[in-house]
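Late entry, evening session. Most of the bench is empty. Finally got around to the prediction I had been postponing all week. Sequence below, unchanged from the version circulated by S.P.
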Amino acid sequence: PKEYDISAICTYWNMGNLDDRRGFYTGIIQNKYAQPELGGRSYITPGKDYYLQADIYAKSKIVWNYSPCGFDVLNFRTFEAMITGSCLLMNKMTSKSMSYLGYEDGVDYVTYDDDGSGDKLLIYIDILLKDDAMRESISTNGYKKTKEHHTMRHRMEAVVDYMERAKNV
């Protein structure tokens, strides 16, 4: 059962030379969705034991992941969120890499434009929370595609394959 509307497990403070937009957006999510008296159910934290993290993601309707740095970069949370069967919501910055891996925005995961205000992020969260059928369809598609093509085993096989090819050059 889904206990949380939205979760995120990430460092949300300024990361050295990187901007603090992740922290800004984390605060916006916390302010709206972490207020139990208003019906909010969120789980936002800077870090958890790996096994607890998977449990938190699996119990969340939406897992939010923000790619900082101003460029297209994926992290393990991308795949960890989808393999738990929860709906992944990310900033649009990562769309090119996700497309390269065969994922489709709006089909396997959802992105929002990072406009700096947080308004679009909140709109997308609200839409996903209100439309159970759409959210669950996206969650299922993301889970299936990740399980079929993008597990840690798939990633390691690709690394080994690359190293084998590089040896022969």
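Two things to note before I forget:
The first strand starts at residue 4 and ends at 9.
The chain has seven helices and five strands.
Will write this up properly tomorrow.
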